[in-house]
Amino acid sequence: MFSTMGMNSCGHSPPETVQLLSVPASQNFPDAIAPGALRWACAPQLDELQSYFAAHHAPFEKELVKAEDGRLCHIDYEPAEPGFRAAPEDAPLQELFLNIDSLAFLSEREETVGDSLDIARQILPRVTHPLTVTLGVAPYPLDLYKPALAHFFPDSIHAFQFHQSPGEDYDPWIQDFLKSGESRGEKKILVTRQAFEGQAELAGSLRPLLDSFQGEEFVRSWLSWEGGDLQFARSPKDPRKLILFYGTSARQYWGGALTRQEFEYVLRREFGADEAIYLGDLTAHVDYLMTLLPAGHLALVAEPVCDDVDVARAAADMLLRQYSDPPPAELRNLHKALLESGAAATSDVREAMTQAEAAKRSWKTFADPGVTRRIKEYVAENCPRDARACIGEAGLPVLLDRHPGILKDWVTAGAKLRVGETFAGRLLMVIEGQVSDCRAPAPGALEEVIAQLREAGFNIARVPWIPGVGPPSPWAGLSYTNAALIGRTLFVPQLGLGHVEQSWFHHIRKALPETYDVIPVDAEFLLLRNGGIHCALAFGRALAEK
């Protein structure tokens, strides 16, 4: 099970009485952790083990000690940035990072689809104190971006800068890559070693993006993690202490051989947390389950909504608006059955749901034939062998200069297509979860989490969450805790469920202290693809007060 190490590549030589035994790497994610970064330190006697940890100023926790082959062993990890301490959620915000669709930005796309560009367009004008806003973009010449910046953010109080990634495709989930904090009195931003989102094959495509975070403030972690599954707050009982809230999404990458307590120890070491609260695996990431407000030490906790026919009707209304020329027969039948079902689902609803599921792949969203024709003609004339060449380094300036309308139509059509790829399936999941198959976590598991939060000193307000259908669900559902708190404004994601969502936003407003405001933000694209507002933002926060 173990292999013996001498000097560790991320640490130092142990005394002769202490052996360092490497923790086995994951077979599926072998590059998820730096070689030699994670090990067990083992010694014949407890005092020898304690002396080793004291010598390199690492916490020693007796409850983690276990016997192995006649020795006593304790998990050992030296952080990539010794002394790093993650910024709590209530630290003053100085900088926002977003990865945006560069072509949507450059074309000055007008249509709102609810992606990270739309998040920036809706949030930034409402932020009343100046921020540094870093926009992650494709590596086109920077001069091309200036007109779009003036178009989207005229007379802005914010200072914008661009971060260019080597690839042309963008990944909106920047929260999962970056965590800000400080080390030795200097601002630092920790960058995950690799990004997987549960899929080993993603590492190659996202590596250039991660490699592009260069400079003194960025530090590459020895570990791979998903930032949405990690949150930090000051302890209500002792503000000097930093609490880590965590799930176990990263455990599959490098912690499979560890106990959950050992996994937690490593995370506390990496992020400088004094305490930790395990929030279970109730949602895909912690930010789907909870968001924190400093006033009143308030934790907004996601509570599943199930067996609510009004929610199912609202989702059916959205589907009818999407597929309205004319609506498919199966969708009309489902909508009609829901309207006639009263307060609970009937056999007619379930039968109509089965038929809609079977037919959803044949449903087509409206596409303007004139737009499609113009795009095809342009491609045939300018880049017949590879359409992407028209939006490449040489072709894009020509489009922007001579045919901006074609570029805008092209980008808008592409955005609608990407939304359409998931729209029917996700909305039918919402309906299914309300009429037949709500796969919410057991109530006891959620109440256990809430009890832990209360014990730590937090007050609780429950916020609706529509879980995905599973298991395993390809979709995490709709979480209104996947939000962004900036100053005294909570920006919450909005899908478009009409009066149902508006009633939920009213409920959230009433749950918050009077000094807070709640602003819904169109986030359809992000919500349909396992995300939300918090997922699409990384926060650069001020250093702690001395």
Summed up:
This protein has helices spanning 46-55, 102-106, 116-123, 145-152, 202-211, 251-254, 260-271, 286-289, 309-322, 329-339, 347-359, 369-382, 395-402, 404-435, 443-455, 499-511, 524-528, and strands at 3-5, 19-22, 38-43, 66-68, 71-77, 85-86, 93-99, 132-137, 159-164, 178-183, 186-191, 218-220, 230-234, 242-246, 275-278, 290-293, 298-304, 459-467, 477-479, 484-486, 489-494, 517-522, 538-541.
Describe this structure in words.
The protein has 546 residues and is an alpha/beta fold. The chain is built from 17 helices and 23 strands. It has 3 domains: 3-77, no CATH class; 86-306 and 441-541, L-arginine/glycine Amidinotransferase, Chain A; 307-435, no CATH class. Helix content is 34%, strand content 21%. The strands form 6 sheets. It has a 5-stranded antiparallel beta sheet with strand order 1-2-3-5-4. Strands 6-10-11-12 form a 4-stranded mixed beta sheet, with no helix packed on it. It has a 4-stranded mixed beta sheet with strand order 9-8-7-23, with helices on one face. β20 and β21 form a beta hairpin. α9 packs antiparallel against α14, α10 packs antiparallel against α11 and α13 packs across α14. The longest helix has 32 residues, at 404-435. The two termini are 46 Å apart.
